[in-house]
Amino acid sequence: MAGYIVKAIEENYADTQKAFEPEDEQDIETVISCMNDRIRKFIFFKDRSVQEEIMNEVEGTQQMIKSITADILRVMEKRKFKNLRPLEEADFEEEWGKSSLRQILQDM
């Protein structure tokens, strides 16, 4: 038993300040700037679809929110798997992204 305690102390098992892996700017699945680009594309697609009367404002907004939320959830999962720091509201450039993240975190 004492051996386990010594090993735990040596390897600092109780460290609550978990270190995250550095960001990989080449990984388009997890990099924050690419996620923000995708969010902007969802917003553009919604605006264009409403403008061209492909769908109405309500349908377009619902589809956009669904797409943004799905993308954020996918990015969160991939970042967690790769031990990258969790997403924060400050990571988002668009208010739609920020509000989607707030809703996701509230639902968790």
Q: Would you give an account of this structure?
A:
This protein has 108 residues and is an all-alpha fold. It contains four helices and no strands. It has helices at 2-10, 32-51, 57-81, 95-107. Helix 2 (32-51) runs antiparallel to helix 3 (57-81) and helix 3 (57-81) packs across helix 4 (95-107). The chain is elongated and about 50 Å long. It starts with a helix and ends with a helix. The model has no long low-confidence stretch (mean pLDDT 89).
What is the helix tally? 4
Mean pLDDT: 89
Uncertain residue ranges: none
The helix content, as a percent range, equals: 55-70%
Oligomeric state of the chains? single chain
> What is the SS-derived class?
mainly alpha
Principal-axes shape call = elongated
CA-based gyration radius: 19 Å
Kindly, what is the distance between the CA atoms of the first and last residues, rounded to a whole number of angstroms?
Answer: 37 Å
Order of helices and strands: HHHH
Q: Beta-strand level of the residues, as a percent range?
A: under 5%
What's the β-strand tally? 0
What's the arrangement of secondary structure elements?
Blueprint lengths: L1 H9 L21 H20 L5 H25 L13 H13 L1
Helix pairs in contact: 2-3, 3-4
List keywords for this structure.
single chain; 108 residues; mainly alpha; 62% helix
Describe the structure concisely for a colleague:
The protein is an all-alpha fold.
